[in-house]
Amino acid sequence: MSYETKADALEAVFDNPAPQDERVARLADQVERLSERVGRLSAVRPPLSGAKSDAEPQRKAFVDGYLRKGLDTGVELKALAASSSSDGGFAVPKEIDATIQRIIRDISPIRGIATVVNVGSSQYRRLISLNNVASGWVADSAARPVLANDTPKFAELVPPMGELYAQPTASQSMLDDAAFDVEAWLADEIAREFARAEGVAFVSGNGTNRPQGFLTVPTSTVADSAGTRPFGTIQYVPTGVANGFPATNPADIIIDLMTALRPAYRQGAAFVMNSRTLAAVRKFKDSTGQFIWQPAMQGERPGMLFGYPVVEAEDMPDVTSGGMAIAFGNFREGYLIAERSETTILRDPFSNKPYVNFYATKRVSGCVSNSEAIKLLRFAVS
Predict the structure, then answer these.
(1) pTM value?
(2) Quick one: 3 exposed, middle or buried, by C-beta within 10 A (0-12, 13-18, 19+)?
(3) Fold classified for 57-129+152-211+337-368
(4) CA 27 to the chain's CA centroid
């Protein structure tokens, strides 16, 4: 069929609307089927990030009700003490707990390089083999000999755990101020205090109701290749000088420290020292007069020493006679942190009137997991 003008074509459409009605009906049917599919998908998929979830009322009740006013309506009650629920306490909502964990990771130096595992109980245990697996070579069709092997020996690794606490304090007038972001303030205060306490424990903790630091384990000059150093004992390298670095070629002793670590552990290794020791090391030069220190190209990355990053941990000791001011090793392999990630808060408006104390706790443990993966530089003659 042909039409002389556009007017003739439009007239033919209005005279015979059946084809248009059929197309409209088909489109309506497709829209209905798509709506059904979207409904089924919405029923099984979790809400998208940013969408209001079931946890939002819980979080709002925690912040606006419990933190600001001390109301426990709509907040899940948790026992602060494992043995008694008389003291009470509230588990921090996941969003606030994630903020606390992120801040701790950013400012806790050892946590940033060690292995961190989350546990659901009050203690973490791991078995470690102390002797090598027997092996050998044979031809394809040859009989496999019975390999002589010592009785398997295992050591049980149980990181000492303690309850870490912080107690930020605010006035009730601050909490009543709607412009005061109590959630961000509390997360920042708790995280910074946790990170400060962790920094001390992971380096020099005595293992009593707290982690055991890597500087408090037994030490020895026996090298790994000797195979006689007891499990859990870290090798140290003496500088040959009691109160500082050697006067001649002081950087050589750092090279000795590096090469004391097995090559398998050097991948991912790092130096750990405080800023005062680092200030001395940064002045070392090679035979051409160039500084051995390589500054970071980006602000977020640490500087490099002989190609390895330097982690500044202010809890490391200064250069003193007999002190171990520099550590070098693969802390992912050498140090283990086990924690219960849940942070608990108890609001206390009575003990320090007119202020409100927020008693925050979590359980953290830590210890040396592989004593071969960490080496220490000792400022001593031997």
Answers:
(1) 0.78
(2) exposed
(3) Major capsid protein gp5 fold (3.30.2400)
(4) 54
